[in-house]
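In response to reviewer comment 3 from the previous cycle, which asked for concrete evidence that the modeling workflow produces usable outputs, we include below a single protein chain processed end to end. The sequence was submitted unchanged, and the resulting structure tokens are shown without manual editing.
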Amino acid sequence: MEMKIVYCVPCGHITRAEWLKRDLEKNIKGVKVSLQDGDKGIFDVYVDKKLIFSKHKEGRFPESNEIIEMVK
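The workflow returned the following structure tokens.
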């Protein structure tokens, strides 16, 4: 399984993206998480190229536990 987190560079979301990446790799066996630069406030999480969480749609950042539950 491949996961990708696209985060807003100008907004400074990199720290949050790194935390989420660490949590996902720690708690989901065999997952590979990549980080991708973005802009315009983006913070999206993809699993195998499918969008599973969008900060824009939800109006908030994802919690690590909810992403872990979505992919288990």
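The chain has three helices and four strands. We consider this sufficient to address the reviewer's concern, and the full set will be provided in the supplementary archive.
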